Amino acid sequence: MVSRLEELRGALRETAVARTGLATGWPDLDELLPGGGLRRGGVHEWVGVAPPPDGEKSDERSAFWCPPLAIVSHLVRRALAAAGDPVSYPVWIGAAVWPYPRTLVEMADRQRAAPLERSLFVRAPDRASRLWAADVALRNPAVAAVVADGSGFDLAATRRLQLAAEVGGTLCLLARPPREQSVLSAATTRWSVRSCPSLVVPAKRWTVELLRCKGMRPVPGACDLRILEHDHATGAIALVPDLLDGPGQAEVEVVKPVRRTG
């Protein structure tokens, strides 16, 4: 009975944010956001952090960047499922944010075609091209989500994308390198994603921290950091249970591994 009540509460929560926001499927993260999810018609920045490959020089550490594509791909699937339109599609702008094609095939469900069949990949050679392509895609009502390499975007660029996202009501996910965490931005939310050790091999873990959110004042002393873990056996990405409070692990959709996960 208790589990059934929890299922109903979850369904009601997702229905409430369906018109204005996108529930991430990770309840602890959704509770941090006004409306219980990522705002549609908004820009959401994901600052990915990863250590350099073995043998790489320490002075090359700042130049190495690995976007958190496993997390972003999960959100794209959520956006496609929430769109309820079989012809809606995601746009991936910049080769740095292109996920492994097999991942998009395995993200398919029985009712809808695989995201790979509907994805549009844009090879934009420079910052100006990526900005232009993202602006155009966000204004298209047939686009469910735009994932873009946001490296080098300044305040004016993010403000332009925020306005475009509001016009199209489209979810915009920007992946940015760690060195740009302090760059001013007009994004609705900004998240920090860092790799962290996992007790289970070969499972991967990330710490996800909400750095800022429009419309929400920071609470002094509050810790908005959560841990996500990728289960290699099932392909699921789930919140790691809080050992102090002892809640159960959140149920999430299955997202297969990607080539560059951060």
Summarize the structure.
The protein has 262 residues and is α/β, with parallel strands linked by helices. It has one domain (23-239): Rossmann fold, CATH 3.40.50.
Walk me through the structure:
The chain is α/β, with parallel strands linked by helices and 262 residues long. The chain has a single domain, classed as 3-Layer(aba) Sandwich (Rossmann fold), CATH 3.40.50. It is 27% helix and 23% strand. The strands form 2 sheets. It has a 9-stranded mixed sheet, sandwiched between helices. A two-stranded antiparallel sheet has the order 1-2. Helix 6 runs parallel beside helix 7 (155-168). The radius of gyration is 18 Å and the shape is globular. It starts with a helix and ends in a 23-residue tail after the last strand. Mean pLDDT is 77; it is low at 12-18, 55-62 and 243-262.
Output the structural class. Answer: alpha/beta
Distance between the termini: 39 Å
Count of folded domains: 1
- Low-pLDDT runs of 5+ residues are 12-18, 55-62, 243-262
Described by strand count, sense and barrel closure, the largest sheet is:
9 strands, mixed
Name of the CATH class: Alpha Beta
Give the proportion of residues in helices: 25-40%
Order of strands across the widest beta sheet? Answer: 5-4-6-7-3-8-9-10-11
Number of DSSP strand runs: 11
* Subunit arrangement of the protein: single chain
The assigned CATH architecture is 3-Layer(aba) Sandwich
Provide mean pLDDT, rounded: 77
CATH topology: Rossmann fold
Secondary-structure element order, N to C: HEHEEHEHHEHEHEEEEE
Strand content: 15-25%
Any idea what the shape is? globular
